[in-house]
Design a protein that fits this description.
By secondary structure, the chain is of the alpha/beta class. The chain has helices at residues 10-14, 23-34, 51-57, 83-94, 126-132, 147-154, 178-189, 206-211, 223-228, 240-250; strands at 5-8, 38-42, 61-64, 69-72, 75-78, 101-104, 109-111, 121-122, 137-141, 159-164, 168-173, 196-200, 214-218, 231-233. The chain contains 10 helices and 14 strands.
């Protein structure tokens, strides 16, 4: 088999819009594993929000929190946001009363206000959380067209930010990218990127799609993903990942 590993994003890629996995998708991924092909998740989600899907698929490695945490067997790597850089983001948010901030520690998520899109713990001392627990990722809710620029202007050189799903700005360590996470897992497996397949839909998936031997953008992906992909598959609602693997690797025999 030409491809030794398949990396998959979750939201708007492997999962349907209701966050479910179809029986067909599960059967295709299980078939891959039976043939010795490694299946790896590469998601913006923290580990605790990936565990359920891991219990079904039994991923061979995990790239979570946009590459801020990498897990393979007993090995684990973390790339946290430096305190000085993270505290500047907190300063920005607290000086703008209508901004929303979440600090993702990996084990929990804390925010300054109640959020409809995250299950968080409300805290009035985000500085202490950042200092004592550290942060794999910080998330600022997009309130208008200026939010991204406001965040980007206060960032130090050791962190960066991206937009996800058009409603949040994600801040992470410069070392924490999906591609760096994917690259690390490829190295741990002893494979070459040319032997790997990647499926994704959003900004953080652009580089892995471009760099892997077979980069596949979802039909519902952003233009930037589609432009660098080798192939475009059906939408997540149509089980695009499973259909592509079935037809490309197994000749549509499943």
């Amino acid at each position: 088999m030409k491809y030794k590993a398949i990396f998959v994003d979750l939201d708007r890629t492997l999962l349907r819009d209701d966050k479910s996995l179809s029986d067909y998708t599960i059967s295709v991924l299980k078939k891959c594993k039976d043939l010795g092909i490694k299946i790896v998740v590469a998601s913006a989600r923290p580990l605790r929000n990936v565990v359920y899907y891991d219990s079904i698929i039994e991923f061979d490695a995990l790239v979570v929190s946009n590459g801020a945490r990498i897990i393979k067997d007993s090995e684990s790597f973390e790339y946290k946001i430096p305190y000085d850089s993270g505290s500047k983001v907190i300063d920005l948010v607290l000086n703008n009363s209508d901004m929303q901030l979440t600090i993702e520690t990996g084990e929990e998520a804390y925010s300054n206000v109640h959020l409809s899109y995250f299950d968080t713990i409300i805290s009035d001392d985000l500085y202490s959380i950042l200092k004592e627990e550290g942060s794999l990722k910080m998330v600022v809710g997009i309130k208008d067209a200026n939010t991204y620029d406001m965040v980007n202007r206060v960032l130090d050189d050791d962190v960066y930010c991206t937009i996800a799903n058009n409603y949040v700005v994600q801040i992470m360590s410069k070392e924490a990218t999906k591609w760096n996470g994917v690259s690390k897992v490829i190295e741990l497996f002893g494979f070459d990127s040319s032997e790997c397949m990647y499926f994704g839909d959003d900004f953080d998936d652009v580089k892995p799609i471009e760099k892997c031997g077979c980069g596949v953008a979802m039909e519902n992906a952003i233009v930037e993903c589609r432009e660098v992909s080798n192939y475009i598959c059906k939408t997540n609602e149509e089980d695009g990942v499973a259909h592509f693997i079935d037809e490309y690797l197994f000749g549509g025999k499943l």
